[in-house]
Specification:
Blueprint lengths: L14 H14 L4 H6 L3 H16 L5 H14 L3 H14 L4 H10 L7 H16 L5 H9 L4 H24 L12
Helix pairs in contact: 4-5, 4-7, 4-9, 5-6, 7-8, 7-9
């Protein structure tokens, strides 16, 4: 059971938050429990999710690439909640293959053949685990796969953003409300 109360979405009448709910429902099919937890600090939630929306909608990475980063960063951080959430977006919101999502959780990037996606994932995993060890070669690999400086910044902030959601859900033991996608 979550360590803070889940605020009921139907009790919210703030138009900005309702807009965020509409956006997430389109991608995930419902308003997830971590939103209900974050409603304990609605002013921050609006800003944080607005930040996430900018990262998802205005950068150089595709939505599919973003979800792959979310799945593998969340798995590395042992956050089952977020791993399931990003799989749900990949499968439900983007029409991806459920079996593929399950295999991604189980075996990581081993099954990915797209070289751009592998470069993005490799960089994201290194930022998540060893950010101080990123070097010019790491940046150059991303640029060889079509990212500009904007894309590099986007990717680093995505890793940080996902890790912050991982920590929130792990620390507050957010009630799991997603389909299971393999073992994390």
């Amino acid at each position: 059971m979550a360590r803070l109360p889940l605020i009921k979405a139907e009790d919210i009448d703030d138009p900005e938050i309702l807009g965020i709910f509409a956006w997430v429902t389109e991608m995930e099919g419902k308003v997830p429990n971590h939103f209900a937890i974050e409603l304990n600090f609605p002013e921050l939630m609006k800003s944080k999710l607005g930040f996430t929306k900018v990262l998802w909608e205005t950068g150089e990475l595709s939505m599919e690439e973003i979800q792959h980063v979310g799945i593998l960063v969340s798995k590395a951080n042992r956050c089952e909640y977020c791993t399931g959430a990003f799989c749900t977006i990949l499968v439900h919101g983007l029409g991806g293959d459920r079996v593929y999502a399950e295999q991604l959780v189980e075996s990581g990037s081993a099954q990915i053949s797209d070289q751009r996606l592998l470069a993005i994932i490799g960089f994201a995993e290194k930022v998540n685990e060893r950010a101080s060890q990123i070097d010019d070669d790491d940046i150059n690999i991303l640029k060889e796969h079509g990212l500009t400086n904007k894309g590099v910044i986007q990717l680093i902030h995505l890793v940080s953003d996902f890790a912050s959601y991982n920590r929130l859900n792990l620390a507050l033991d957010t009630d799991y409300d997603y389909a299971s996608f393999g073992n994390t």
